[in-house]
């Protein structure tokens, strides 16, 4: 799975900009998911800024466009620098997912930090419309994809 994004990044190295929407769509599809987000860390503000999304209701976009570290699944994954997973976001009462997250109608979901050599570059979140526990291999693959995205961001000085 980790090689899912490699062709996109390799093809984009000589382009003025990566099509992050297409990259996210490919990742979502590769994991059999329907919904996803890609946030990049704005180091000047410390906020996660939405770069691409799929399957989100339009009314949620303002709430997801900028996420503070420590808030919601993406913010907690970024703060902890570890994946945050929920088998069923709809029935979760841990407080990790923000109340509006239930409006996505997704169930099995995961947010992983985009990390390279311990440095945070953002988060990647994907979800299924059914309860689901991601396997250890899937989590490792998502972390590998996150490292690839991070490497591209760092190597190409991606600006937010």
From TrEMBL:
Name of protein: Putative GAF sensor protein
Alphabetical list of InterPro entries matching this protein: GAF, GAF-like_dom_sf
The GAF domain, residue ranges: 15-159
Organism name: Hymenobacter roseosalivarius DSM 11622
Superkingdom of origin: Bacteria
């Amino acid at each position: 799975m980790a090689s899912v994004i490699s062709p996109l990044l390799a093809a984009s190295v000589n382009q003025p900009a990566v099509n992050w929407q297409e990259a996210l769509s490919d990742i979502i599809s590769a994991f059999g998911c329907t919904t996803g987000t890609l946030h990049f860390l704005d180091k000047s503000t410390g906020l996660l800024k939405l770069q691409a999304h799929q399957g989100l209701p339009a009314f949620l976009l303002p709430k997801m466009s900028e996420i503070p570290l420590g808030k919601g699944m993406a913010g907690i994954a970024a703060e902890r620098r570890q994946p945050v997973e929920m088998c069923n976001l709809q029935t979760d009462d841990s407080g990790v997912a923000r109340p509006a997250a239930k409006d996505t109608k997704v169930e099995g979901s995961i947010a992983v930090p985009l990390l390279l050599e311990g440095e945070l570059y953002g988060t990647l979140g994907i979800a299924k419309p059914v309860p689901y526990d991601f396997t250890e291999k899937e989590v490792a693959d998502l972390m590998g994809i996150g490292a690839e995205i991070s490497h591209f961001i760092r190597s190409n000085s991606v600006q937010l």
